[in-house]
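Entry 14. Ran structure prediction on the chain below.
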Amino acid sequence: MTAQPEENTTGARSGRPWWFLRPDAKVTVLSLGLGAAMIAAHAALLRDGLPSLDWEVAPVWVLLLMFAATDGFAIHLRVRRGGHAMSLSEIPMVLGVLGTDPTLLVLARVLGGGAGLAFLRHQRGVKLGFNLVLIGVQATVAVLMYRGLAGPSDALGPRQWLAAYAAMLVTDMLADILITAAISLHDDPGEWRRLPAAMRGVPLVAVTTSIALVSVLAVEHDVRAVVLLGVVSLVAYVAYRAYVRQSQGHAQVEGLYAFTRALDGSLGTGEVTRVVLDQARDQLRAEVAELMLPGDDGRFIRTRMTGHGDVETTRHGGATANAWWAAAANGQPVVLKANSDNGRRDTSEHPTDGMAVPVPMGDAAAGVLIVTDSLPDLSTFGENHVRLFQALANHASVSLARAGLVDRLRQEVSEKEHLALHDPLTGLPNRRQLLRRLETALGAHESPAGMTAVMLMDLDRFKEVNDALGHDIGDALLREVGARLQRRLGSSGVVARLGGDEFAVLLSRVRSEEEAVATGYDLTRALEYPVQVGHLTLNPRASVGIALAPRHGDDATTLLQRADVAMYAAKTTGSGVRVYHPEDDQNTPDRLALIADLREAIQRRDLVVAYQPMLDPASGLITGAEALARWHHPDRGFIPPDEFIPLAEHAGLIRPLTLHVLETALRRCAAWRRIGHDLHVAVNLSPSSLLDGTLPEVVNRMLGQIGVPARALTLEITESSIMTDPRGSRMTLDRMNALGVRLAIDDFGTGYSSLGRLRELPIHAVKIDKSFVQRIAVDGRDRAVVRSAVQLGHALDLEVVAEGIEDRDTYAHLAREGCNLVQGYYVSKPLPADEFVRWLSERVALDENVIHPQFGT
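Output, structure tokens:
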């Protein structure tokens, strides 16, 4: 059974300028090579003078007609987008090799087969040329093999039978190999994987060869047996064509199953689209496949697959209503028959024929799946193709919906990963990303001569810009600083924002300390150019600290800590850029030992809480007390709060310290109230406490468990602690206020918050810093500041508290100014809990020299 190549995708890939790279040219070269080999082999056959047989089974003109008929009425065996046409040409070929001159046989094979291909199957051009050469090569090889194996004998015996079988089987397999080579050159290099499927018709060669041999034997006895040969050949043709059609139907079902399997898994929209288009072209035997999906702007996003599987995506710019496939967008399948315009109104596209079916997209507008230009082995698209196409579109619809969800999930994961590793304000890597890259750089050292440099920098006086001009201006300045650092550094390093106005730079490879310092100065100079923000011109300056690995440490945490030390040293000395020096580091062994002792003291609850009374000058009554942490070190004695509180902040111990003071103070407050003293207690919060999202829940739980009303607790915060993270701090303050807890601004007058921001905060009291209070008796300017603070607090309907009162004159002045509460050594020093209760019990009323402000005049 002879095979010829069927239609494959034609046309060259775009972007290939040389003619010899075009698929048609490649097949032409192959055809010429095969033709030359055929002529050479035939010439060798004639030169060797192999004897021809003395008897003739069939005249040459009969063979010529038989070749034309068998090649003209071929059975199409499809192999993916390619195809093989199987014919019964082995029958006349066997008749020819048994008793026809080799040259005449080859001519009859080429001329008869060519007539069938050209006039009955309408082949033209390169394909016809290749097929003519192919059947000529088959005929030549068949003659050579048969004459070589059968030997010079006029009889038709078992040896000649076997020779005929071998010649037909080898030439058929050779044809399959050469056809696969042509398809591979012309359309798809992967065609070689499908060679076993193309050889499915080889076993039938034994049937057709047997028919030919039996027919020859029958004709030897009775020439009328040629009629039986025709009948048997026709029956074999019809039977095999029915078998092929049935197998192609099964193959279509298998193809649909393979289509659904190909769409399984977590594929994105692009991957699903490629699979759908590729399968649509194969299953429907089409040159072009397109998928039109509705876009956000109302136009269709058009993905088109042509040629060698090339895919291009564009937006459909034409009017959808004028497209021949427009009805499919409204839910109706469309079939465009060959040689018919089918009512087509689109003048911009002219497919030979085509089909379009809707692709349901849930609540969104329907998409459209299109195939155009059926392959030549398919006359045109029909209703059976529409049903298959609709099945493919329905599967595609489900897969596209799932792919859309996969795309969204991937995008969300990508965005979350990006947010986890990047600063949202500047888009720069954040601390986590910097640590990753620093660890990678530290692990990539190839030579001890190279160093890794870590730079930390913050902007000088940035807080003043933020407070005076607002956070919008501050944020704009930070974005510009990050962009300048990135532009200046380029690809030679990594710029990160660690938070606030603190940036970091990683140089994974520097040759010397001098090079790192030079880079640091270069970056500071880049920042010093004026920054225009709206109508404002700002002149940022930065202080830079540098740590080098491995000199100053071989791990990321140590390097960042030491770069931070160097940065603060640069800020303190005004040098601008400074490399880490051990003498700059406050983390001395003595300091680290003290931190360890503090941690142990907090865990053992060795820190005590003292209470300083707060007095109402108008009534002379004690209304509450401020809780103050005190630490008596077993070896060093009393450690001032100004020393151990910053240690706790630095070592991450401030939260357990704050919770210890808070719980102890609330329990004492509950005890006071049980014995008849209706007092409130005030507890200081650190800046980091305001960023603790769990603090409101902890406070609420403590109040409930201990039994203290929320109004009896005052939490004191500083202006600067709010400014560390205004948004996060405001959320914490709002939640505290919702509990009923009183809030007070401590050290009022020393910060930079605007009156507008102060007015918006959910606070109940302001506490004038003792630096203003202690000199009001002798300094008119301090008196003016205190008077203004009192008036401002009252204007904002806030309670005003003054601390640091150490003498009668100061007390009397504050009483006249209208301070609501006062505290200080003049009233009482901070007292341990038991002493405070005794003091409170003994002082039902203070000495009249204290409680009556008029005595201070």
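Residues 5-20, 79-84, 341-348, 847-857 have pLDDT under 50 and may be disordered. Will compare against last week's run tomorrow.
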